[in-house]
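User: Fold this; tokens only.

Assistant: Input:
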Amino acid sequence: MIYTKEQAYAEIAKLVNTFKTSETRLNNEAEAQIENNFIRPLFKYLNWNTENDGLAIPDYEFVVQRTNRYGKRPDYILQLDGQHLLVIDAKQVKLDMHDPRWMNQVYAYAYSTQNLSPSRKIDFAILTDFQEFVALDCTLYAGNPKAVANFRVLDWRYDDYLTQFDMLWELFERENMRQAARTRGTDALAGLWARALSPKKVKANRIPPDKAFLMEMDDDKTGWRVRLAKDMKKHNPEADGALITAAVQLLIDRLIFVKALSDREIEDDYLSQLAETVERDGLAESNIGWFTACRTIFTKLNEFYNGSIFESRPELEAVTVSNKVVRAIIHDLQPENSSYNFAVLPVEILGTIYERFLGRVVRTTDKQVKIEDKPEVRKAGGVYYTPQYIVNYIVQNTVGKLLGKCQTPEDVTQLRILDPACGSGSFLLGAYNALIDWHIRYYSDKARLTKQDRTAVYHDSDGRVRLTARLKRQILLNNLYGVDIDPQAVEVTRLSLSLKALEDIGQDEVYEERNLFKQTVLPDLSQNIKYGNSLIGPDYFEGQMFSNPDELKRVNPFDWEQQFPHGGFDAVIGNPPYIRIQTLQEINPEQVGYLKQHYQAASSGNYDIYVVFVEKGLSLLNERGRLGFILPTKFFATDYGEGLRKQITDRKALDEVVDFGHAQVFGGATTYTCLLFLSSQPSDSVSYSKASSPSTLLINSPIYRTIPGTAFTEQPWMFGTDVEKELADKILQGSIRLIDLPADIGRGSSSGSDSVFILRREGKEFITRQGGEQVAIEEDILRVPVYATDFGRYSFTPKGEETIIFPYDVTSAGYELKSEIGLQKHFPKAYKYLTGRRKELESRKQFKAWYSFSAPRNLNVHDNAQMLVPLLADTGLYCRFPENAARYCLMASGGFSITVASSHGLSLNYVLGLLNSRLLFWRLRSISNIFRGGWITCTKQYVETLPIHIINFDDPVDKARHNKMVQLVESMLALHKHKAAAKTQADQELYQRQIEATDHEIDALVYELYGLTSDEIATVEAAR
């Protein structure tokens, strides 16, 4: 029956009256009676199908939360259209709904969903015994159970159901709530979402659970890690950072696992047992005997669960930690004190928390303990975990495609899936999910389950197919493999997979596994998830006598054939580390030579380590294998990517690419990425998609375009449309590359210490950039610095406010400085000035001589430079260098210089006009890296390949075009000078209009030179 507003009021009035007349007696009624007699009817009259009559299981509106005797889960979830809207916890009347324990219990459940997908995210919770009705905004982080009271958006007694009936109907009536829920995430919020609390109204922020939990674990001052580490160092002064890092990690892992068992109500409440044991044994705060007191519990858990989490570990036996610190952490984790409920906080979210946690380690000195970023993390500017939708997409297009070919569970057992840099295990968790889902679908499609089937699956009380603990163990052992160079990452991956295996496991099944089948609930994953360096084999130390344990630990070679003797893998998935070779040289110099010798991808250039991981991953595939990685797109076109491109294309392994262009996958990082899919089976075509936004993968699959595999070689990869590729081929005809004119492209200079080398001129005096100190210096070693902001298309306007000191090589002034003595002899003032800052200059890493500025070649290039190009550009990019080039010094942040030979008889202005044209910028954009806002990278490797149309000077028409271009560019140069000198806005606008008209003439002439049709011109113009 659907109740009108008037009918609902009448029925609820009866409920209220019944409760009022029986209030004293109801005070002692069981919770179930209150639910059935008052709470369910209340929502029934608000038109909710509280009995789920006629609804399929996925469409249930009143979802009952089954709980055990501990009762830690709220009673109901209200859902509509497959979306969770409210969580309701019913209590006995005698209980106070304002007790922080009960409010925190229901709040923590809803708050822990805040990282879930929109359909599973619950923003509001109801705590009620009908006598009281409290609605909480659960999008805010409390941190303390007492703070939850600040999140109340409603606080009624049962009389308010009538006095506030209009609001009750508006907020909780079924259809009203459905409409209000659709406004989530919009600017026109309605219903409960319009009443949500602003962080300004409460002393909290909308911090999602993953960030809040990481903060509790890893805050520099109050986090569990730093408190444990300091305490361990205090009681174990001989312990080094590596031991304390490992011990802290293992202890936190154990406590988190125990909390998960407690929150999921799988069996005994071991978290409470730990707390009670510590208290019962009467350990003083300064006592360190808690671990011994709790050993019986850990031993019992190890016997029950295995999984290597609770086994005896030398790291924990080697150190002690005080009762005070551990007791405080256990207290924080207990349900009545914690803002998190691991019954709903997904293991995948825990993985993202750990991903950041793993980026830091404990560093110790004799007296200090510090938590620091790992060197590679510090260089990268932080840890960036892979979004879940990326994990899911990669798994879907690797593991998913392999599963699509499997007919039976026996087929699935043959699949071997690897993440060679597994980190916290997010990709292996994704693969585990896919494997579980396949089995559920397979057994759900069977009309009846055989006796053999029932060892693998069962039907729960709602009729859903669930996998047994036995089958989940088998999947972990048969299908999933991982390697990581960080031992803590290995521990976390094992923990994450173990927690995943415990999802949907009930008390009865745990009892059967342990007592009837004499099985541990979890498998030992030590043979599946291993510690080692995926890129370096045991031959690294071949022929050497072992003498350096530190080097062995740093290198950590891994023997793939010995560790995984079954052979190749069906799927290699993951997010390999992005570490530039320069960083690797600093943190692990021993590896660089080995990689160069053993991997084609590392054979040349300043490569990034991810290209080596792709090569390694490709080599680990079996004959039917698929590889799926998320990685930077730089290797598409960079010199260092040539070796990898050749390996991939020689094997015809390139299968699919999802290119995110300049859209960002990793928040806070300017890394331009793609999804790369390779196949062991040769592919004649490549599926390519340009995703406008990474998040589109959440909604639907990208639209792929098919490109012939023959289009890809070791040369830079281009993924343009057929029209664009034909146009690119066309403009190459009758042209030669810029570098083949020939042209010399020189990089700008770098001082490494601008505050020393750059001075400000004030009349005849020179002032330091910082501090304003007056400096006496010889003028003939000074140059005017040129930055990207000092020039534009056809314009060159250096500010001349600063002067570069250039003491290392001044051949143009007739000096040759090859030693400190030479500098002192020829430029004593400069020598005195630099000597006073010697300590600062010696700290620079890129210069061998403390007094040197830059490589000698750079100055010589700029003495003869004709054009400049910035590092980044959003339109045309070249300017004409002035005749007195020797007076200037192009800085590295400014870009590059170009010097063109006249061997083809081409005027410099002709070349300048071509380079500044829309057509050649279109070409540069198609092969370069594109950043936000349409800016592109203008590095040498791209610029030097631009096609310069060669003029046949024997052809009058061709010669006339050349001369016309020269005249137009001369006009353009003059117009820019006049505009720069204009004193009025009217004059500036006048010159700007003529500049635009001349630009249009140049573009039209270039289209004519390269023979473009009207359709081809439209293609170029559309790319603006």
